[in-house]
Amino acid sequence: MQKFRNHRLARWVAKDRPRLRAFVKLTPVLFLAGLMMISNIPTLSNYFGFSLDILIIAPLATIFACIVAWLTCRISVNRSIAAALDNVKEMQLVFFILMMAYAMADVFMASGVGASIITVSLNWGLSARTVALVSFLVSALLSLATGTSWGTFAATAPIFIWLSHITGGDVHITMAAVAGGSCFGDNLGLISDTTVVSSGIHRVDITGRLRNQWAWSMLCLVLTSCLFFWATRDFSNAPVDGSAAVASIPSETWQVLESERPAAIQLLQQVESGVPIYMILPIIIVISAAFLKVPTLLCLLAGIISAYILGTIAGTITSTSNFLELLQNGFSSAGSWVIIMMAWVGAFGGIMAKMDAFRPLTRLTFKLSKKVRHLMFWNGVLSFFGNAALADEMAQIVTIGPIVRDITEESVEGPEEAKEKLRFRNATFSSALGIFGSQFIPWHVFIHYFLSVSAMIYPLAEFSFAKMVRHNYMAMVSVLSLLLLTLTNTDRFLPNFATPTEPEVKLVKQLSEKEDYL
Questions:
Q1: Which of 23, 121, 167, 398 could form an S-S bond across to 128 if both were Cys, CB 3.0 to 4.6 Å?
Q2: Is 224 helix (H, G, I), strand (E, B) or coil?
Q3: Distance of CA 52 to the CA centre of its chain
Q4: What's the rounded Cα separation, in Å, for the pair 193 and 186?
Q5: How far apart are CA 324 and CA 434, in angstroms?
Q6: Any idea what DSSP says for residue 392?
C-alpha cells in the first residue's frame, strides 16, 4: 500500500503539476543553502542548535537531490549515480591542480617566499601616511604568492596594524587595507582554492582565465592604491623602522596566532630573523610562466622546484626530507577537505543537471535580458546574492556557479572562442563576487574572521563591520567596476577583458515553449 502511494505521489509531481515540478526540482539547492546559512550565521546556529561542515551538507544535499530526481522525473538511483559520477570525472584535472597548489603554498610559506615580500616592504621606511598603502600592496602580493586570504591576513595584520599604531596612523584604515589586499590573491592567485575551484566549475583553463582578467585586476589595484593614498594624505610622513613593528607585537598576539594560524608564526619569525631577498623569485617565476601560456600544472611545478632550490641555498629548506614532508602536507590538506568537498558538490551538480533543475532560472534571466551583456550582468547579481544567502564564498561558487554556467550555455549561441570568454567572466563573477562581495555582508564568515582576528591582535581599538566596510576600497572598486563594466560594455577598453557582444554572440531566439511556466 505504501509503495502504491509513493508511486502515485511521484506520478502526481512528475506529470500533473508543471509549476510545482519546477519548484520541487530546485528544493535541493534550497536545502543546501538553508543548511549553509544555519551553519555559517552564528545567530541561526544558536537558534537551531547545530552547525554542519559542507563535507556533511553536500552529501545530504546529494541524497536529497536523488530523491527529488525520482519524484519529479522518475530518474532511478542508478541513473542519478551515473550522472553524478560523469560530472565528477570532468573535475579530475582540477583535483590534481588543487593538490599541487596546496603543496606550493606550503613550500612558499616554509621556504621564505612570503617572508621576503614583507621584508622588502619593511625596508622602505614606512610612515603614518604610507603604512595603509604599503600594507595593502604587501598583502595583495603575499596573497598572490600563498593563495590564501585568511593566512595572509593572519600574517600581515599583526605587523601593519601595530606599525600603524607606532607611526600614528589610523588602525581602522590599515586593517581594511590588509583585508582588501588579502582578498586580491584569492581572486587572482594561481594557487588560490577559490580561483582553482571557480575555474573548474566553469570549465576554463586557469592560466587563460588569469590572462583574461589580469588587466581588470591591476586596474582595481591601482585605483584602490590611489584611494588609500588620498585617505591618508594628511597624516605624518616621518619614517619609522618597520622591524620595530614585529618586535612590538605583544606575547598575547603570538599566542592567538599560534592557535588560529600556526603557519603565520613561522612567517613572522622568518621576517624577524630575515630571509634573502632572492626568495621572492619563485613567485615571479610562477607569474611569468602563466603569462607565457605554460600549462597550469607546469607553472605550479616550476614554483615548487624553484622554491626548493632557493630555499635550500638560503637554509630555510633544511633537507630534501623536509621538502617532501611539505609536499605531503600540501597534498593531504587538499585531499582532506577541498577535493572531497568538490567531489560531493560535483555529484550534486550532476544530478541537478540530469533533471534540468535550473531551467526556470534560465528562463527568468533570459526574460530580464535584452542583450548578452544584460544576461551576464544578472549572472553577477545572482552570484553576489547567492554569496549573501550562503554566507560562504566557496559554498556560493559550488552552488551558484553551476546555475550561472548552465544559464549562459543554454541562453547564448555563438562561436566557441566567444563562449569561452563568457565562461571566463562567469568564473570571475564566482570568485570575485564571492571574495570581494563578502566584504559587504555583515554575517559572512570572512567578516567574522577579519574582525575577530583584528580584535585579538590589537585590543586597543574596537573594530566593527561599519568601520571596516567604510575603508575597504578594494571591495568597493572590484564589485562595482566588475558589474558596471559588464553591464555597460566598457570592459572592451581593457586588454583581453571584453565580453563578446552582438552580433558575435546573441541570445537564443526562444527556449522551449513547453516549459514556459514562469
A1: 167
A2: helix
A3: 20
A4: 7
A5: 33
A6: -
| Contacts with 511 (C-beta within 8 Å, 6 or more apart), sequence order | 359, 362, 363, 366, 410, 411
Please tell me the pTM assigned to this model.
0.80
- In the predicted structure, residue 409 carries a pLDDT above the cut 70: yes
Burial string for 391-415 (b: 16+ CB within 10 Å, else e) reads: bbbbbbbbbbbbbbbbbbebbbebe
| Strand (E) or helix (H) holding 205 | none
Q: Which residues of 134-161 are buried (b: 16+ CB within 10 A; e: fewer)?
A: bbbbbbbbbbbbbbbbbbbbbbbbbbbb
Q: What is the mean pLDDT of residues 126-147?
A: 87
- Identify whether the C-beta of residue 183 lies closer than 8 Å to the C-beta of residue 468: no
Residue type at 81? I
Cell of 224: 584602490
* The three grid cell numbers given for residue 506, joined into one nine-digit string: 546573441
Quick one: cell of 510?
526562444
DSSP string, 428-492: HHHHHHHHTGGGG-TTSHHHHHHHHHHHHH-TTS---HHHHHHH-HHHHHHHHHHHHHHHHTGGG
| 290 DSSP β-pair partners | none
Predicted confidence band of residue 518 (pLDDT cuts 50, 70, 90):
very low
Q: Which three cell numbers stand for residue 144?
A: 598572490
Write the CB contacts of 278 (distance below 8 Å, at least 6 apart in sequence): 116, 310, 314
Length of the chain: 518
DSSP string, 308-371: HHHHHHHTSS--HHHHHHHHHHHHHHIIIIIHHHHHHHHHHHHHHHHTTTTHHHHHHHHHH-SS
Kindly state the percentage of the chain with pLDDT values over 90: 32
Residue 169: left if φ>0, alpha if ψ -120 to 50, beta else—which one?
Answer: beta
C-beta of residue 358 within 8 angstroms of C-beta of residue 365: no
Query: Do residues 226 and 137 touch, judged by C-beta distance below 8 A?
Result: no
Write down the pLDDT at residue 283.
85
Please say whether the beta carbons of 111 and 285 come within 8 A: no
